[in-house]
Design brief:
Elements: H1 2-13, H2 26-29, E1 42-48, E2 57-61, H3 67-81, E3 85-88, E4 91-95, H4 99-108, E5 112-115
Parallel strand pairs: 1-5
Antiparallel strand pairs: 1-2, 2-4, 3-4
Length: 118
């Protein structure tokens, strides 16, 4: 009985086809994100309600930074706006309508920012 169990475990770990490299190619599948300096990034700030049950959220898009950089930036924006927020897929979302305040903060940090939408 134990021999049968061992053969099943070997089947799970056995590679059927492998062209080259090691079986663990997780590093190859990580998305490469270029870390551009702030003055080379074109950001857009807009307030939106769509899909948020009528609540206004200020969204900043256009980042080309690593997640660690965005995490530091969102923490700073949340503190200075006095509200909550998050990072989702290279965009920053801040709760409430803070377009002008976020524009001023990001401009002081050296980013090229424009207000988008009405």
């Amino acid at each position: 009985m134990s021999a049968k169990r061992n053969s099943n475990q070997n089947k799970k770990n056995r590679a059927v086809y492998q062209e080259f490299g090691t079986p663990d190619n997780s590093a190859a599948f990580e998305r490469a994100v270029p870390e551009l300096p702030p003055n080379q990034q074109d950001l857009r700030v807009q307030a939106t309600k769509s899909g948020r049950k009528g609540k206004v959220v200020t969204v900043v898009t256009g980042f080309q930074s690593k997640p660690e950089t965005l995490a530091k930036l969102v923490k700073q924006l949340k503190t200075q706006c006095g509200s909550g927020g998050t990072v989702k897929e290279n965009t920053i979302e801040i709760q409430g309508e803070h377009k002008q305040k976020i524009l001023d903060i990001l401009t002081k940090l050296g980013y090229k920012v424009k207000i988008s939408g009405g």
